[in-house]
Write a structure and sequence with these properties.
With about 130 residues, the chain is mainly beta. The chain has one domain: Nucleoside Triphosphate Pyrophosphohydrolase (Alpha-Beta Complex). The chain has 2 helices and 7 strands, in the order ββββαβββα. The mean pLDDT is about 95.
Length: about 130
């Protein structure tokens, strides 16, 4: 059992059409859920550097990081999950979407249609609302 608090960084990534990228998680936590892309912060990295690195690794996309929307906490002791996640707005600069093996699928979706998605990650609606998308 791993009782560590994990700190991560994720983004609301918007393309030129105003669509948001959602990733379907392949592994726990949130396996099978649609989440905003991101990953764990490495020692010496700040949250913006992490978001850029993780998005490049997970999607093949180069991004521009904008303002921090907020810091969110997810605590689920029954699943051994305690995460603190920085969320930023971001835009695609370049690249073609190519998923890593961490994801089962990805979709670009208009913000107004996000609530129709089944199995959204727990924090996703709250983050999008705080970011002004819902």
């Amino acid at each position: 059992m791993n009782n560590e608090i994990r700190v991560g960084s994720a983004v609301i990534l918007e393309n030129e059409k105003g669509e948001i990228l959602l990733i379907k998680r392949k592994y726990n936590p949130a396996k099978g859920r649609w989440v905003l892309p991101g990953g764990g912060i490495k020692f010496g990295e700040n949250s913006k550097e992490t978001a850029k690195r993780e998005l490049k690794e997970e999607t093949g996309l180069d991004i521009s990081i904008g303002n921090c929307i907020g810091v969110f906490e997810l605590i689920k002791p029954e699943e051994n999950v305690h995460r603190i996640i920085f969320y930023h707005k971001a835009r695609v600069l370049d690249g073609t979407l190519k998923l890593s093996d961490d994801a089962d699928d990805a979709i670009w979706i208009k913000p107004g249609k996000i609530n129709s998605i089944e199995k959204l990650g727990e924090l996703t609606p709250e983050v999008l609302k705080r970011g002004g998308y819902l």
